[in-house]
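User: Show me sequence and structure for the first protein, then do the same for the second.

Assistant: Starting with the first protein.
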Amino acid sequence: MGIYTKLPAEMEEVDVIIAGGGTAGCIVAARLADADPNLSILVIEGGPNNHNVPTVVVPMFFLTHLMPGNKMALFYQGKKEKQLADREVIVPSGSVLGGGSSINLTMYARPQRVDFDSWKTPVEDLQNLEGIDAVELALRFVSPDGKRQDIAHRSNPEFQPEAIGETRFVKARRMVVVSCGAIGSPLLLERSGIGKPETLEAAGIPPVSSVPGVGHEYNYHQLLAYAYKTSLGPDETLDALVQGRVDLGELMKNNDKLLGWNAQDDAWSRDFRDVPTKPLMLMSLLNGFPSDPTNIPPGQYLGVSAFSPYPYSRGHVHITKPDLDSPINFETGFFSDPHDVDLKKHVWAYKKQREIVRRMEVYRGEVASSHPPFPAGSDAACGERDGPLTDVRDIKYTAEDDAILEQWLRKNVGSTWQSLGTCKMAAVNEMGVVDPMLSVYGVEGLKVADMSIVPENVGANTNSTALAIGEKAANIFIRELGLDLSEHACQTRRSPGFSKTG
C-alpha cells in the first residue's frame, strides 16, 4: 500500500494504528511498512507539519523549542508542590512528528549496561555497554551537511501529515500501539478505561482493565543550569545569534557551519559505590547563556547544566475527567524523597561544577541571576572578573550559604524533557503496565512503545533509549503479526522479545 498524505474518507479500518508519532512511534511505523508494504498503518500525531521546517532541521535553532508557547511541544503543568516552594513545575514534551528527536538538543548519550540490567528484563546488546569516561565530547545526530537527523525525516522524508480538523472513527484490525510519551500514554490508557479502578471511577471512566500501575511512579532527570561570563569569542557561543548581533539571513544564505551546531563541547553505598559505571550526576557545557536571555546584557556566556540521572523521588500523572481539556493530576515529585538525597546531590553538583568552571581559562565570573543569592560578605558571593583566576582555592560555604543554596535549588529545579516510567514494563504486582512483549495487561492487541515503559532510569540523554525501544518494539510486533523479516534486516531485530545480556 502506498503512502497517503490525506486520510481517505472511505477508510474505516486499518491493520495497525499507532497513537503518537514520536521517536518510537515513527520507527515502529517505518519498520512495519518495510516488513510488509501491503500493511495499512495509521499514525496519529497532533502536532504541526515539521517537514523541512528550519527550526527543526537546523540544529542551532533548538533554543526556539525551549520557549513558552512553542507549537512543536506540549507543556504539561504540574500541581503546586510544597517541597518546590509551592511552584507549579512545567514539563515540556515533544508534540510533533518525530517527537523529541525533532526538537531536542541533538545530544546523543547511550546508557550503561547497568541501566538495562536494572530493568530486570533480559535485554540484547551488541556493543560495549561497560565503558564510561569522566569527560567526553558531545556526540550529535547531525548529518555531514549540517542538518538534524530526526526520526520523522529519516523514516520517510516525503511524508507530509494532514490536519484532519474533524472527528473520525477508524478501527484497527490487528494491533494498536500507544506511543504518546511518558505523560501522554498513561492519560490515553486511563481515558480508555485502563488503569487503577478508583482513579477511573473518580474521573467518570468505566473500567475496562484493572492496571493500577498506569501513571504511577513518574520518573525524571532533575535539572539545574548555571551561567557564567566568558572570554569565548562571538563565533564560539550562541549568544550573538540569540541577542540579535548577527544576521540570521546571512547565516542561512551562506550555510554557515554554526547552523549545524548544538552549542555543546561537551544512597552512595547501596547504589553507587560498587557500580563504577553508574554516574551520581551528569554535567554538560553549553556555549551560550543557558536560560531565558531576555533580561541579560549583551555579552559572551557559557552555561553548565547539572542533572541527576537516578533520582529517588517519584511523581504521578492521571486524568481527572474524560475530556481532553480538563486539567490533569500531575505531580513531578521532584525533591520529594524522604531523606532529601536528590536535594543533597544537587547541592554537591552545584559546588563541584562551580569549582570546575572557576579553573577554566575562559572563566570571567558568575552571572548572579542564575546562581543562589549568597550575601555580599560570603566567600560564595558571585562576581565578575577581567581575567582568569590564579592560585584558585575552593570556596568555603557557611551553614547560611548552604541554606540559601538549598532553597534556591527548590525554587529553580526544572525539566530536562526526559520523562519516563509511567507505563513500566514489570509484573502487575510490581505496578507494571506492560509485559516483556510490550502488551498491556488485560487488553488483547494493545501495545505501548515509548519511554513510558522504562522501569528504571538511565544515566544518559533519553532519546537514544527511545530509538532502541522503537527498534526492539518493531521487531516484536513484526513477529507477532507474522511478517517476514528481510534477509538484510539488522541482527538486532532477529531475536524475539528481549534476550539475555552478555
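Switching to the second protein now.
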Amino acid sequence: MSIDSSAASAATVPGSGDTAFDLVVRAERILTPDGIVAGEVGIRDGRIAVVEPHGSGLTGTETVELGAEQVMIPGLVDTHVHVNEPGRTEWEGFDSATRAAAAGGVTTLIDMPLNSIPPTVDVAALEEKKAVAAPQSHIDVGFWGGAIPGNKADLRPLHEAGVFGFKCFLLHSGVDEFPHLTADEMEEDMAELATFDGLMIVHAEDSTTIDSAPQAEGDAYERFLASRPREAENIAIAEVIERARRTGARAHILHLSSSDALPMLAQAKRDGVRLTVETCPHYLTLLAEEIPAGGTAYKCCPPIREEANRELLWQGLEDGTIDFIVSDHSPSTVDLKHVDTGDFGTAWGGVASLQLGLSLIWTEAKKRGIALERVVQWMSSNPARFAGLERKGRIEPGVDADFAVFSPEASQLIDVTRLHHRNQISPYDGRELVGEVSGTWVRGEKVDFQTPRGRLIRRGEA
C-alpha cells in the first residue's frame, strides 16, 4: 500500500471517491504495513476506504484528530481467550471479556472451547454459545471447536459451522467435561482434519512426565514449578511435530513456555511441517525468581519460568520461531485462586491479562529496543493471518476499520479494581507499565462500553 496516490487509494473500495467519509482519522503517526506515517484515514461502511498523506484534507461526518503523542494502530487480534460463558459466567462472560479486550486495544478475539458448559465440542454447543455471545459482544468474536475422545464425527460439522480450528489437550484439561486426547488419538483426529485442511491447536504438556514429577502443594512457587517441568512440554511438543509430519495436518503450539523446545520447533518449520507457535505476555514479562510465596495469581499451566528461559523466548520471537503473542486469558473467581491459603497445588491455574497485553509487551519491548511496529505485528497482523482473518490486523484500504489509539510514552499504574475483567485478581496489580490505549474502534464505530456492537465471525468470512 502507498499513501502517495489518491486515485489508486480511492479506487480500492466502491464509492470511496466521494468527498466525505463516515469517519476521518487524522494523525501524525499511523502504523501501516509500510511503517509509521503521517496521514489521514477515510472510513466508509465500516471499512478503510483510503489512506492519504497528512494534509490531504479528507472530510467526514465525524473527524478524529490525534495528538502528536498518539499512534493509530490496527486493532489487536487475540486468538486465545477463555470467556467461560455459558456455564461459568461468574468466572468471566462475553460482556466483561469484550469490554476488557476493547479497553486494551483488542478488536477481535477467538474464544476457547472450554471452560464453558457445555464445551464447544459439537454444533449444538456452538449454537448455544453463539446465542449468548451475540447480544453481549463489544468487539468481534469467533470460536474454536474442541477435539476430545469420541467426537471425531463432530469435527467436520463444526468446521463447516465456522469454527477456526480445534483445541485438544495432551493431559487433563483442568475440567472434567473436556477430557484430553492421547497422542495416538490426536494423530487420528489430525488425519481427519487434514481431509478438509482443518487446524489442530494443542495444549502440549506430557501427562506421564507430570504424573511422575513432584506434587505441587503449599505456598512455595519453586515446588509448583518443579511439578510442571520443561520436559513435559518438550516431550509433548515433539509428539505434536511428529504427528503433524505424518498426517500433513496444520498444527499449532499453544502458550509456549519452555525455551528448550525452540530448536526443534525451528527445525520442524525448516522441514516444512505445517506448524505455528504462540507465547503469552506472562512468559515474556514475569519471572519465576520474583514470584512471592503464596502468589497464586501467578499460577498458570505451563508455568512462568526463569529469567534465562524468558530471554530465549524473546529471541524466539525475534528470529521468527515463535509467530505471535496472545493472552491465554484464563480467569476464575477469586476464591478459586485460594489466595487465603496460597496453595499452588489447589489454586486454579490461569492468568487474567486480556486488558493489559499491549502495555505489558510494549513495556518489555521498549527496554529491549524493539520497535512498536514489531510488537503490533506480533499481536495483530500475525495472529490475524494465522486465523485467516484477511480483513483484520492492518491499516490499509479495503480492510475492516478496526483500530486503537495508543500512547506509547504514557505510563500507567495498574489497579486491578479498575479493570473490566469480572474478577479482581491479577499478577499485574500495582505494576507500572508504559503505553496506554485511550480508544478503540470496531468497523469504524468507537467502543463505548455500554452498547455492544461487535459481530460474531466465522472462519473464512472476516
